[in-house]
Design a protein that fits this description.
There is one protein chain. By secondary structure, the protein is an alpha+beta fold. It folds into three domains: 87 residues, Pseudouridine synthase, CATH 3.30.2350; 132 residues, 2-Layer Sandwich (Pseudouridine synthase), CATH 3.30.2350.10; 64 residues, Archaeosine Trna-guanine Transglycosylase, Chain: A, domain 4. It is built from seven helices and 17 strands. Strands 1, 2, 3, 4, 7, 10, 11, 12 and 13 form a nine-stranded mixed β-sheet that branches. The chain has a four-stranded mixed β-sheet with strand order 14-15-16-17, with no helix packed on it. A two-stranded antiparallel ribbon has the order 5-6. A hairpin with a 5-residue loop joins strand 15 and strand 16. Helix 1 packs parallel to helix 6. The longest helix has 12 residues. It is elongated, with a radius of gyration of 23 Å. This is tRNA pseudouridine synthase B. GO terms for molecular function: RNA binding; tRNA pseudouridine(55) synthase activity. It comes from Lacrimispora algidixylanolytica. It is an enzyme of class 5 (isomerase). Pfam families: TruB-C_2, TruB_C_2, TruB_N.
Length: 300
């Protein structure tokens, strides 16, 4: 069974779950998960976790993401993108400098109301299921943050922009909100996710490319080992006589590891004496031990 992360280029028309299903077929293994839903109309970077790396799914879902989006001004739809039914159309009178000013005004934290066509649940039912039944429910605004936003090109009524944002941000809704601010409405015309944490668009592989590499026997070279995700953390290696502690996922004393220049604070990568990656540990100062934060050894 393969363990690690593969940077998949999700193509238009596929759901994120479709990608996982196809990856299970390609690799002939069940333990596969994705790291954050991309709408079927969107494309781009979708890190897919294999085997033990599925424990990373939540962690990578929480990472910041970067998108290239095309916003279409003058139209509002029920899905907030061009796959939906047009609800209203307005003339676009805004000038380019007004558009830029409106776009850049969203830099920083803001409260965003999730769209009805989303997988969020209310009373156990997904919003998009309610929307398909013609039911609209009140949604609470949620805090999100636009970390960077840049206008790349304006050819009204279309505006191309690059957005780096926190988890939980809907770019469709951002386009809608910008359109509302300009008084002409707006929706998302296209979306490409260009980066998730350290995973870049230029390194991503389509499903057909993954199949080709599998057939060539070289796919393993494109699977990122689990510990590489934590490269920013200092590493420590256990003394052989204490390997059993970490093999069982137990805490340990710092002097049960080999000599290390690792700092006293912050998370650490822990390896056994054979340099097998165990997981991420963090210091518990009160008990003067290192305790497991996320363990990747074993099949669970």
């Amino acid at each position: 069974m393969a363990d690690g992360i593969i940077n998949v280029y999700k193509e238009k028309g596929f759901t994120s779950h479709d990608v996982v299903a196809k990856m299970r077929g390609i690799l002939k293994q069940k333990k596969i998960g994705h790291t954050g839903t991309l709408d079927p109309m969107a494309e781009g970077v979708l890190p897919v976790c294999l085997g033990k790396a599925t424990k990373l799914c939540d962690l990578l879902t929480d990472k910041t993401k970067t998108y290239e989006a095309v916003m279409l001004l003058g139209k509002e739809t029920d899905t907030q993108d061009m796959t939906g039914t047009i609800l209203a159309e307005y003339p676009v009178h805004a000038k380019e400098d007004e558009v830029r000013e409106a776009v850049l005004s969203f830099l920083g934290p803001y409260n965003q109301i999730p769209p009805m066509y989303s997988a969020l649940k209310i009373d156990g039912k997904k919003l998009y299921e309610l929307a398909r039944e013609g039911i609209e429910v009140e949604r609470k605004a949620r805090p999100v943050e636009i970390l960077e936003i840049r206008v790349d090109h304006i050819e009204l009524p279309r505006v191309t922009m690059t957005v780096t944002c926190s988890k939980g941000t809907y770019i469709r809704t951002l386009c809608y909100d910008i359109g509302r601010k300009l008084g002409c409405g707006g929706c998302m015309d296209s979306l490409v996710r260009t980066q998730v944490s350290g995973f870049l668009l230029k390194d991503s592989l389509t499903l057909s490319q993954i199949e080709e590499l599998r057939d060539e026997g070289t796919l393993g070279e494109r699977i990122l080992a689990v510990d590489k995700v934590f490269n920013d953390y200092p590493a420590i290696v256990m003394k052989p006589e204490f390997d059993k502690l970490v093999h069982n996922g137990n805490p340990f004393l710092r002097d049960q590891a080999q000599e290390s220049s690792a700092p006293e604070e912050g998370p650490l990568r822990v390896y056994d004496s054979e340099n097998q990656f165990i997981g991420v540990y963090e210091p518990d100062k009160e008990r003067n031990i290192l305790k497991p934060q996320k363990v990747f050894l074993g099949g669970n």
